[in-house]
Specification:
This protein has about 290 residues and is mainly alpha-helical. The protein is built from 13 helices and no strands. Helix 8 packs antiparallel against helix 10 and helix 12 packs antiparallel against helix 13.
Amino acid sequence: MTGLLLDVAAPVRAGRPARARRAGLWWLLPPVVVLLGFFGYPLVLVAVQSFTSKSGELTLSVWGEVLGSAEFRDAAGPTVLLALGSAAGCLLLGTFLALAVAFVPFPGARGLARVVDTLPAFPSFLIALAFTFLYGSAGLLGAGGFLYSPWGVLLAEVTFYTPFVMRPALAAFGQVPAAQLEVAASLGARPGRVLRQVVLPEARPALASGTCLVLLLTVNEFGIVAFLGAKGVSTLPVLIYGKAIVTFDFPAASVVAVVDVVLSLVLYAGHRRAVGGGRRAAVDQA
């Protein structure tokens, strides 16, 4: 009798997860519709507009004109170079500050970490405004030529985006077992060797994730570049603004926007891969 009851109850239990999954799919429908309406639909419109001429005809000529123009090349090059330079600068500075806060006991270490953490809470153009008061022509240091050059934009972006590398690095350094550091020190390893062979390998996934995130954010940075108005510095977001708002050339602006979206998706995929690699490494260590 007991076996018969178990055989009868088994299909009932098997049917419950299926009904639960179907109910969960219904609950997912409203947010998916909202996401498609507010994000997917405008993105499709931009993609369609990029293949539409000013006269309203579907054509590929807009892509050829935009991608072959010197204006696009002059914007794409600085966009990539500034993003790479900012990512490298944030990686170096963020790693150094995280190491100093995590392993070098000095007064004000926690205060420094909190100050750095508060930077992303402000709009990026405020960094450019602060740099204007410091390095502008009428600023404290009066290095106006430097501020309005690509190096000024690079310095402003590194200053603003360093916390995006420093915070994950601090979290990773905090998870390094103290026993490993003690064993390495007891075996006579110098601090530099401990840093290279023990500390940095543990934090490599976090550093890679933070660096990819900085790349993604700096590729789409608009406020710093537009506020500083650096001479000879044009990026893809600034070019989109100029085409759409200044000259009302919406097809050309849509082409640049699609290129920027594709580049952002590639960088986002790299960021997700770095995050996934860090999680897998943590699971393997556990």
